[in-house]
Design brief:
Structural class: alpha/beta
Largest sheet: 3 strands, mixed
Strand content: 5-15%
Strand order of the largest sheet: 4-3-5
Shape: elongated
Order of helices and strands: HEEEEHEEHHHE
């Protein structure tokens, strides 16, 4: 009986050593504490976060010069409910950026047949913004038009946070109701 216990312990020690060696060799993929974040080690230097209508929302490290298309591919692609009018796949990433892929249909309505009514932030007038998006007051709608005139067209919906009067709370309320193009 004593010999069996010694043999089992010896096998356990050998297996632990073998598994530790295998674990040390597989360092290509690192999973940070956030279970929804996946990053690749190596020659990467752009960190970007993606959420919304993608297969695997999270934070990814990509090569410099990567585009939103590369980030979406790293996240497993968009799902069938992604509104392609709300993002620009050619957008070149900068580190620490975050992107939200808005839904086309209301997520809470499983039988939705009509897309969510949305307003194009790059073309809408002040009154269209004010009336079309309940999260926008008249002054915020005016600030959006002014920002667009001063800085050019919006390249991503997250740029709305740069507009005076739009903070995180307002952005969270409006992000599903705006697009970058018709």
């Amino acid at each position: 009986m004593f010999k069996i216990i010694i043999a089992v312990l010896a096998i356990t020690v050998v297996m632990l050593i073998a598994l530790a060696g295998v674990d040390a060799m597989t360092t290509d993929i690192v999973e940070p504490n956030d279970s929804n974040s996946y990053v690749m080690e190596g020659e990467t230097n752009i960190q970007a976060t993606i959420s919304g209508e993608v297969a695997r929302p999270g934070t990814y490290l990509l090569e410099e010069g990567a585009t939103l298309s590369d980030l979406i591919a790293s996240a497993g692609g968009t799902n069938g409910n992604a509104d392609s009018r709300a993002y620009d796949i050619s957008f070149v990433l900068e580190t620490k950026m975050s992107f939200y892929i808005a839904p086309l249909f209301d997520i809470g309505d499983v039988c939705a047949t009509e897309p969510i009514p949305k307003v194009n932030i790059n073309a809408a007038t002040k009154s269209e913004l004010d009336e079309g998006v309940s999260a926008f007051s008249s002054s915020v709608a005016e600030a959006i038009v002014s920002y667009r005139n001063d800085n050019g067209l919006f390249r991503r919906i997250e740029e709305l946070k740069d507009v005076k009067g739009i903070g995180t709370a307002t952005f969270e309320k409006c992000k599903d109701f705006v697009t970058l193009r018709d």
